[in-house]
Structures are given as structure tokens and as C-alpha cells.
Amino acid sequence: MAAKEDPEQVKKALCELRRGIEAKAIIKDVSKLTDNFLLRFLRARNFDIESSVTTFVKCAKTKTKVPELFLYPSELKMVFDDNILSVLKDKTPKGESICVIRLANWSDENYDYDCILAAAFVTLEVLLMDEEVQRNGCIQILDLKDVDFDQLVSIEGYQVKRLTKIFNKFLPVRICDIYIVNDEKKAQLMAKKLKERVSEEEFNKFHFYGTDLTGFHEEIPAKILPTELGGEAGDFNCDEWYKTLLENEDKIRKNWSLFDSE
């Protein structure tokens, strides 16, 4: 759990962050940046002003350079119809939110991997509207059960690197751990791709498990996990989470417009 925040220090940090962003001249109107919006950057970087400013700048540049990742929920219906990505109802004992991605239902003939990244991207945006998520972060679980080798091979190395880099460096979110589970051979393939393309610090956030999930359940209790992950919380389903995303689409548009430079 995150440490308690001192209101006066928070107020001071917000002022310093605004000045730092204004000095970069990367957006058109710093006055529109609300305290709640800026706090996500401070919390993600443990209130280090320079790092928070850098993350804001990188996030704004990402929106300009990689617009295909900034898709709205209504544009990503196909991903959720395929039951690929959801956020679980319960959090970890540490208070972290849990995002699960199940690739087995994905076909690259229907849409490419970037659409799944965009779904994860917009999911994180909505999660960050929760101050508890800003403080405690989240974990990601990638379920490889029934995934074809062809599907994994179609995910290019640069996409793996970009995913890790954006989530760890460019977004104001604490990705505490990433678990790749349910198929040992495919997990090894993912590990090889990752190790070749990410830093040691980034790679250390990944944890690999085969079909024996005993060790995994020691870290994430089975009672909060879906049946597909050896859990007791019922079948994996994206419907409720997609409904939540759609309900927040206007807020997403408003938040992402804050990065506009014109």
C-alpha cells in the first residue's frame, strides 16, 4: 500500500509540476490541467518533479506520434467482443488492480496486435481515474492457454519492446508486475523476445509460469482469479468492463484532449 500523502507537500508538488510542464511548452493551455489529472503523474513517479514532467511530455508526444494507441472504447468493440481483455473485480492484497489479457481468441486476420495494445491503453486510462490505482498501481496477467505459436510469432519484436517501453516509461501508471502464464513453451518464447529487447530492470517485472499455477497463486490468491487462471471467481468475461469503458468515454476524450498542442 502507498504511503500517506502530506496535503501541503502535494499542493507544492502540483505547483512545481505545472511550472515544469509550462516551461516545456508542449501543450496549449496548462491552466486546464486539473489537480486530479496531474496527481497521476506525481504518484506514478513518487512525487519526483523532474520525472513527472518527463513522463507528461513523453505521454503527450506519444499521443501525437502513435495515435493508433489512443482509440476510444467505441472503436475497440471487436477486442472486447472476443473476450480478450478485462479488469478483475477484486484487487490484490497489496491493493493493486488486475488486468487480464487472454490472447487465444485473437485472430490477426480480423485486427492487428495494436488494437489489443489500444484496448490495454484505454483500460489504463480508466483505471487511473481511481486514486487508489494511482497510488497502488496494477498488475497485468497474460494468459497464453490455447494460443497458437503463429499468433505469438505474428507479434513483432518491436511491438513487444514498444509495449513495455510505453507502459513503463511513457504512462503515469505503476505496472508493478506482469505475469505470463498457462503455457511453459510459449512463455519461454515470450521471455526470449523480451530479454532481447528490454532492459534488465524492465525484464525483472515479468514472471513466467507454465500450467502449474501453484507459485502464481501464492502471489495472486486463487479466490480473486477467474476459472481460466485456476481461480474461484467464476468465468473470465469482458462485458462488464467494456460497459465501464463506454460509460467513461466522454471523460477519456476530455483527459486526452489535455495533451493537445493546438
From TrEMBL:
Gene3D superfamilies: Alpha-tocopherol transfer (1.20.5.1200), CRAL-TRIO lipid binding domain (3.40.525.10), N-terminal domain of phosphatidylinositol transfer protein sec14p (1.10.8.20). Pfam families: CRAL_TRIO (PF00650), CRAL_TRIO_N (PF03765). Residues 72-237 form the CRAL-TRIO domain. InterPro entries: CRAL-TRIO_dom, CRAL-TRIO_dom_sf, CRAL/TRIO_N_dom, CRAL/TRIO_N_dom_sf. This is Alpha-tocopherol transfer protein-like protein. One of its GO terms (cellular component) is membrane. It comes from Leptotrombidium deliense. One of its GO terms (molecular function) is phosphatidylinositol bisphosphate binding.
